[in-house]
Amino acid sequence: MPPPGAQLRRPPGVSGPPRDPARDAQILRAATELLAEGGYPALTMDKAAARAGVGKATVYRRWPSRAELAAEALSHAGLADDVVPVVLGSGRLREELLATLASTTGSQNTSRVDLVSALLDTARQEPELCSLIRKRYVDSLHQALAGVLDHAAQRGDLPPRRNPPQDGRTIAVSAAIALLVHWGVVHDRPISDDDIAQIVDGVLLPLLR
Question: What is the pLDDT at residue 184?
Answer without folding.
Answer: 67
